[in-house]
Amino acid sequence: MYFSANNLTGGYGGVNIIEDCSFKVNLGEIVSILGPNGAGKSTAMKAMLGILSLNSGDVLLNGQDITKIKTQDRIKLGISFVPQIKNIFTELSVKENLEMGAFLFDENIDNKIDEMFTLFPILKEKRNQIAGELSGGQRQQVAIARALMTNPKVLMLDEPTAGVSPVIMEELFQHILNIKKQNIAVLMVEQNARQALEISDRGYILVTGKNAYEGKGDYLLKDKEIRKAFLGG
């Protein structure tokens, strides 16, 4: 697997939020981390990004142990992260947000911005608009596009469809599918479990900070026990 986390245990203030959690995602794959509120989903993602110190476990990127590498250095190695909130510069234009995302990109960024406008057509139309004036769904597109400006091989998304309508959620998931086609490994935390599994190659379900279920997306969708407990019947 291109990106993997093995037996992660850690938390805050001496209290473990996640225990022995493991996740794997390959290039050109979408993997979802699901579970009820407080299950440790976002904590697990922060641990993989290096924001949270681990008590045990390791994180590997393309065979390299990055467990002790700082967050900014993980980004340089090809990991990009879109947090759930405060994920854009609201006072800057759409184009300026993309430019800010290219802080590690040494080449001419105009071509990369054009790529983002192709991937997210509405952003081309809104390129000179202040990002804070955009709708929630459009803001999320800006956030994801900005994360892609560094040419990551791994894209980590924390609740990418939080607070948007079902129509916008479907649109955002379609964008994520298009990102997968670029041979990028996509790892996302999601509350909209059923819809996330429909586009996911594989999924992990956490319960009280531990791996409770894992498997291919369609398998988890068909499992009666999982449907009843986590997918609304």
Protein topology:
Elements: E1 3-12, E2 15-25, E3 30-34, H1 41-49, E4 54-61, E5 64-65, H2 71-76, E6 79-82, H3 94-101, H4 110-119, H5 121-125, H6 136-148, E7 154-158, H7 166-180, E8 185-189, H8 193-199, E9 202-207, E10 210-216, H9 217-222, H10 224-230
Parallel strand pairs: 3-8, 3-9, 6-7, 7-8
Antiparallel strand pairs: 1-2, 1-4, 4-5, 9-10
Helix pairs in contact: 3-6
Describe this protein's structure.
- The chain has 233 residues and is α/β, with parallel strands linked by helices.
- It folds into 2 domains: 1-75 and 154-160 and 185-233, P-loop containing nucleotide triphosphate hydrolases (Rossmann fold, 3-Layer(aba) Sandwich); 79-151, no CATH class.
- It contains 10 helices and 10 strands.
- The strands form 2 sheets. Strands 6-7-8-3-9-10 form a 6-stranded mixed beta sheet, sandwiched between helices.
- β4 (54-61) and β5 (64-65) form a beta hairpin.
- The radius of gyration is 17 Å and the shape is globular.
- The mean pLDDT is 94.
